[in-house]
TrEMBL record:
Keywords: Hydrolase
PANTHER family (alphabetical): AB HYDROLASE SUPERFAMILY PROTEIN C4A8.06C, KYNURENINE FORMAMIDASE
The protein's name in its UniProt record: Alpha/beta hydrolase
Keyword Cell inner membrane belongs to the record: no
InterPro entries: AB_hydrolase_fold, BD-FAE-like_dom, GDXG_lipolytic_enzyme
Coiled-coil region: none
Organism phylogeny: Bacteria, Pseudomonadati, Pseudomonadota, Betaproteobacteria, Burkholderiales
GO molecular function per UniProt: hydrolase activity
Residue ranges constituting the BD-FAE-like domain according to the UniProt record: 75-164
Keyword Endoplasmic reticulum: no
Length: 296
């Protein structure tokens, strides 16, 4: 009789200790407290620079809200989905995502979702999709161009961005095919399988159905009109980098447009914060994809 041990290979030849190390984002930086404080500081700055943002309930079932920044007639809208391993973060400390794009005439929505373990991954995915549905149905009332909706997120938010470009759900929600224009997936967890073997599962409690239904790499459409923009920081662990590169390659192999952006000097946290920079690489990539989608 054999017994499972922490040293047994569980995923791609890695044991539990290796998986914990590879997927421990906080331990990958010298000080998580410094990174978290920068999120709060930059978000406060953006909110001061963009006063008068509107807060709306986008999902009546959960009561969850999003903030709309710099709304003006004819502007495209970009929805930002925060990270935090599905159990942390909020729209308040992710307002930084509106800093760069609004300087180029893009309205930005920054959303909350109910955090684990209060709900599971399937409900979080439902809520994020509900935010897209709300923008599609109510954005035009505010003058926004919602012929295409642009989305993005980092880490857990990168995973949820992957679920927004997944096959089939928009049709089931009554939205037009191809409504998602640009999709920025940063350090996304596109295969949930390894997470069941490590500390993340203490609060996520992934079931086999969760892994099958909510791993974006298993739901890549063919011939999508969405352009994927994928990136992971050069200072991140090898698994965060690999998941990003693998998802981008699968997206391309399915006949879809993809841009893989090199961010060699960024870590797991400041890569997202670079959306504060109007002339930053990620802002530029999103703007190019939005422009291309409006001409498609």
């Amino acid at each position: 009789m054999s017994f499972a041990t922490d040293a047994m290979p569980l995923y791609r030849g890695m044991d539990a200790a290796t998986l914990d190390r590879e997927y421990n984002a906080r331990a990958s930086v010298p000080s998580y407290a410094v990174e978290a404080a920068a999120y709060v500081r930059e978000s406060a700055r953006v909110q001061q620079e963009l006063p008068g943002f509107e807060t709306v309930v986008y999902d009546e079932r959960s009561g969850e809200k999003l903030d709309l920044y710099d709304v003006a007639p004819g502007r495209p809208v970009f929805l930002w989905v925060h990270g935090g391993y599905w159990r942390g973060g909020s729209r308040h400390d992710n307002a930084f995502a509106a800093g760069g794009l609004t300087q180029h005439g893009v309205s930005v929505a920054v959303m909350d979702y109910t955090l684990a373990p209060a709900v599971g991954i399937a409900e979080i995915v439902r809520q994020v999709r509900a935010a897209v549905v709300w923008l599609a149905r109510h954005g035009a009332e505010r003058g926004l161009d919602v012929s295409r909706i642009h989305v993005g997120g980092s880490s857990a938010g990168g995973h949820l961005t992957g679920m927004l470009v997944a096959e089939g759900w928009t049709r089931e929600a009554g939205l037009p095919d191809g409504i998602i224009g640009a999709a920025l997936a940063l350090s996304g967890l596109h295969d949930l399988e390894p997470l069941q073997h490590m500390h993340v599962n203490e609060w996520m409690r992934f079931s086999p159905e969760d892994i099958a239904q909510c791993s974006p790499e298993r739901w890549i459409p063919r011939g999508s009109r969405t352009q994927l923009i994928a990136s992971a920081g050069g200072l991140e662990t090898s698994e965060f980098q690999r998941q990003t590169v693998d998802f981008a390659q699968r997206w391309k192999d399915a006949g879809n447009a993809v841009a893989l952006i090199d961010m060699p000097r960024h870590n797991h946290f400041d890569i997202a914060r670079s959306l504060c920079e109007p002339d930053g690489a990620l802002v530029g990539a999103v703007l190019r994809a939005i422009k291309a989608s409006r001409g498609a």
